[in-house]
Design goal:
Elements lengths: L3 E6 L10 H9 L7 E6 L2 H10 L8 H6 L2 H7 L2 H19 L1 H18 L14 E6 L2 H16 L6 E5 L16 H5 L6 H11 L8 E6 L10 E2 L6 E2 L10 H10 L4 E4 L9 H4 L2 H4 L3 H11 L1
Helix pairs in contact: 2-5, 4-5, 5-6, 9-10
Length: 299
């Protein structure tokens, strides 16, 4: 039996180069990794380079920033929690808002993804068919875009599977001319969100069953339109007046085109002070839908 390659891609925040090691330890508690090589797709430096060059917190993106709910976060969260949330919004705007920089980020990540399948001499060590991709947060938007780009170029999806945790792929931009959403970046000119999702989910059927999974926490502000209970008032409020999750029609299409490809879990609480905990990658890795899906792909 040939070895499999498990590539993990981080999301927002200041991820270190060895971010994947705690993930690997968490996964190893539920899976035999003796015939699996685990590697991390680190791209924090690429995002930071673009963010440093283009201060999107102001200028034409000011309205989007305001809609992101920064004022409320400053009022209801402590400094560290508010910073993490702002880092998320910044990374999203850097990634989807600047077309030239988006292409630069995509190209850099594509090169790194390809390099992870090679040995030290540059020779291909792992086939795409032996490669399982796992992305969290913004990494769970970047990976499907890379996979789809390769699919458009080659005519097929070559990877063994794609598991997406807390993916913001459902985010819908209120100003698509100024800032495209993630699905808008995946399609051809004129494609709508539904056609992109239909084609993407359907393409995975050529690989096999249970190859694509979106796993989202219903209390996670990154991938859900959850309403949080505001401290001291008891008021339920959607802190981000944008749509983060797939709408019912999009959810139906995903599950209709590739059975069970969108699954919901529930951990944490609808409390703004739990924003970071509800988005935690290691907690996602403990969830049954993730471990069931990975077990199938490791067979």
């Amino acid at each position: 039996m040939s070895k499999k390659l498990l590539i993990l891609a981080h999301g927002i925040g200041d991820a270190p180069k060895d971010f994947y090691k705690p993930w690997q330890d968490a996964i190893a508690k539920n899976h035999d990794l003796s015939d699996v090589v685990v590697k991390g797709l680190w791209w924090e430096d690429v995002l930071q380079k673009v963010a440093d060059q283009y201060p999107v917190i102001s200028g034409p993106f000011a309205d989007l920033i305001k809609m992101g709910g920064f004022d409320g976060m400053d009022r209801w969260l402590n400094g560290a929690q508010a910073k993490e949330f702002k880092d998320y919004i910044m990374d999203v705007l850097v990634y989807v808002g600047l077309p030239d920089m988006w292409l630069y980020i995509q190209n850099e990540c594509a090169l790194r993804l390809a390099a992870l399948r090679k040995d030290a001499s540059g020779k291909e060590e792992f086939k795409r068919s032996d490669t399982i991709l796992v992305g969290h947060s913004l990494g769970a938007a970047m990976l499907p875009q890379l996979v789809w780009r390769e699919c458009v170029e080659t005519g097929a999806i070559g990877y063994r599977g794609l598991l997406l945790l807390a993916s913001p792929l459902g985010f819908e931009s209120p100003y698509p001319k100024l800032c495209k959403d993630f699905l808008g970046r995946m399609g051809h000119p004129g494609d709508d969100r539904m056609s992109v999702l239909t084609g993407f989910a359907r393409a995975w059927n050529m690989v096999g069953d249970d190859c694509l999974r979106f796993i989202n926490n219903e209390n996670d502000i990154v991938c859900s339109d959850v309403k949080y209970e505001i401290p001291d008032t008891g008021e339920l409020l959607d802190l981000i007046p944008l749509r983060q999750s797939f709408d019912p029609a999009e959810s139906f299409v995903l599950n209709a085109e590739h059975k069970g490809s969108l699954q919901w879990v529930s951990f944490g609480a609808p409390d703004p002070r739990k924003v970071a905990e509800n988005h935690d990658a290691l907690t996602y890795l403990k969830q049954k839908p993730f471990n069931d899906a990975l077990s199938e792909l490791l067979k």
